[in-house]
Amino acid sequence: MRCAKIFCVPALAIPLLAASTLPPPAGAQPQADARRLADVHPGPGSSVVGDLELVQGQAGGQDLLALAPDGVTPQLWGTSGTPEGTAPLLERPLAGFDPFGLAVFATTADAALVRAAGDELWWVRPGAGPARLLGTMAPTGGSFSWPLGAALGEQVIFRGRDGAGEELWRTDGTVAGTRRVADLVAGSGSAYPGAFVAFADRLAFQARGGGGTVPDEVWSTDGTAEGTWRLLGVPGAFLFPLTGTAERLLFRVLAATPTEEGIWGSNGQAGHATRLLELPLEAVVHTAPLPGRGLLVVVLDAAGAVRLWFTDGRPAGTTLLHEEAVGEETTVALRAPATEVGGVAPRVLMLHEPGTGWRFWATDGTAAGTTPFLLPLGAEHDQASSPPALLGADGEALYWAFADDVVGREPWVTDRHGLGAILVGDLCPEDCSSDPFAPRALVAGGMTFGASVEGDRGLWFTSASAPAAFPLLPPGGLEGSLESTDYGYLGRETTAPTGTEPWAVRLTVPCSENATTLCLNDGRFAVRAAWRSKADAGQGQVFPLTDDTGAFWFFGPRNLELVVKVLDACKTAFESFWVYASGLTDVEVELTIEDSVGGATQRYRNELDTPFVLVRDISAFGCVE
Questions:
Q1: pLDDT above 80: residue 291
Q2: Residue 506 pLDDT
Q3: Which residues pair with 610 in a beta bridge?
Q4: Which of 289, 287, 249, 256 is CA-nearest to residue 270?
Q5: What is the rounded distance in angstroms from the CA atom of residue 540 to the CA atom of residue 554?
Q6: Distance between CA 571 and CA 435 in Å, rounded?
Q7: What is the largest CA-CA distance in the chain?
């Protein structure tokens, strides 16, 4: 047995075998296919260059990449994760924003607003015709509080520039529909709007008041001049939106006086702002959103008190979850999983005291759901600068990377409350660590991750139902960096013949029908529906109908809420799979459909308190064989 202070768990849930000798896990295991996408800069030269990030965003079912065909000047390319699905989208030099390295302002479901050289702004719709030049109104000055734009329905609200300075703009992707919304600072001064956050049916953003040098105001907009107004201004303070729900905005005020310092909430109406938490000026404060629900706030004050709060944006919805006295030199942190599916996973409060080490609480935002737990940490984690990493979460488990007193930094799994730590595997035995990286939680359950074995990097899979490390790409089969995408991973690979070029790992998970997973079209498509009401949340329960159609119930098997059809139109002129969905509900729904052959994933969302909006997507999936 392996003991960790007050509890013991089995030393290993699996024997320490070489990964290649492990038996296959129960249930569906992903398959991995790694390949170079294109030799964009032919020959030994490299197309992945410069200060721009390789992955710029996603729109129209494609990842947007910054690649340089001449080895010097990046342009915008799109990829669906296959060589045949990789092509240029905008053959103009891109211009990014320091320090973010991004040229893409914002994306809608099928389009992207892109900055190119010469302060040009372009509207790019992958797979829907050539890019469209909107004008030369890209911002060039002031602070870049990312993001500089956000989608609001089918339009994008963004920071643009003209003779009135850098102000609030909107576009619907047409030249005629691209215009300034409001001159927030009259004349040639600039408000420098940024840090856009969606809430309710609006966007919030920070801005500078007249003559200010910091963003000392928070505004709300619906994309029209008459629907744009200030929520709060505190001269000299620093205001920034944090997160939004279906009804409320939550934002922070950093001020020099205690009368304004704190966490504030607003319903989005003109001049409406309420301070929810008063924060001591000298306090250490960390926040973590609970998407769709509200905000967690941990406060460590100078008197040595730690308090954990949850707020939904209303005074009545602001609750103290945990408090305790701590010693000097205490360090606090509030962590969310790097990747999560299956509903909002608990967040983790971490406390470190010299001589005591790390202590942990998992919280779901309720007092009853805030519980302590222990991890079997080793001496490597004695320092405040060396916390364990919360890699990911699925519907059943949390996945970690840390070292105990026997093995180096390796992958572990606990339940969703942090209990019952099990070592996934000592992937790099002896005196080394595999240092897990690039986690990706899977909708079907489990997590994929990269790991290093004596310098050779590979890709692995584990799950709560089979807590072992199953190799997808053996050590030595993985090169370069990794970034998670809908179909797997994107990265860069350097070889002598081709230089540094983009490559992808496509993950496919065979559909295995169960109570919450509907398999359509001979098992090609896995369909799942997560729902949330004001009082509860859960996974839709399957009610199969035909090979291409099925339904889900949320509250009882005699009460169907959602019908989904995936229609094969590959032998028609459309050459695609169509998705139709209709609902008899106004709860929040996130419908996820995965193509186990093509590797693509589509997500459709219906907001809380909104009658279900019909889904009719006639280009949802390509006809990849």
A1: yes
A2: 86
A3: none
A4: 249
A5: 5
A6: 47
A7: 72
Angle at 51 between CA 47 and CA 56, to 5 degrees: 75
Scanning the structure block, which residue is given the tokens 């360090």? Answer: 331
* Residue in the structure block whose two tokens are 């939680």: 441
For the chain, the distance separating the N- and C-terminal CA atoms, rounded to the nearest angstrom, is 49
pLDDT digits (tens, 9 = 90+) for 488-524: 899 888 887 888 899 999 888 778 888 999 999 988 9
CA distance 79 to 371: 43
pLDDT in tens, 477-490: 777 778 888 888 99
C-alpha 401/C-alpha 411 separation (Å) is 5
- Contact assessment for residue 599 and residue 487, using Cβ atoms and an 8 Å cutoff: yes
Instruction: Write phi, then psi, for 118 (nearest 5 degrees).
Output: 75, 20
Tell me how far CA of residue 304 lies from CA of 283, 444, 515, in angstroms: 10, 43, 48
502: nearest Cα among 31, 88, 5, 16: 88
State whether the Cα torsion 531-465-438-43 is positive or negative. negative
Q: What are phi and psi of 380, to 5 degrees?
A: -60, -25
User: Following DSSP, what letter does each residue of 423-455 receive, concatenated?
Assistant: E---SSTTT-----EEEEE-TTS-EEEEEEETT
Please tell me whether the peptide bond between 99 and the residue prior to it is cis, using omega within 30 degrees of 0. yes
What is the architecture, at CATH level 2, of domain 139-286?
A: 7 Propeller (2.130)
Closest by Cα among 477, 67, 534, 500 to 294? 534
Residue given tokens 């990269």 in the structure block: 450
Domain boundary assignment for the chain: 1-29+327-468, 38-136+480-507, 139-286, 518-622
Distance between CA atoms of residues 4 and 403, nearest Å: 12
| Gap between the Cα atoms of 517 and 528, Å rounded | 5
What residues contact 213, with CB distance under 8 A and at least 6 apart? none
Torsion of CA 366, 372, 376, 381, to 10 degrees: 80
Residue 601: pLDDT over 60: yes
Give the span between the Cα atoms of 579 and 617, in whole angstroms: 5
> pTM for the whole thing?
0.83
User: Which contiguous run of DSSP H or E holds residue 359?
Assistant: strand 357-363
Residue 100 in contact with residue 86, Cβ under 8 Å? no
Count the neighbouring beta carbons within 10 Å of the beta carbon of residue 259: 9
Burial class (CB in 10 A: 0-12, 13-18, 19+), 378: middle
Please classify residue 543 by burial: count the beta carbons closer than 10 Å to its beta carbon, then call 0-12 exposed, 13-18 middle and 19+ buried: middle
What is the C-alpha separation between 323 and 319, in angstroms, rounded?
11
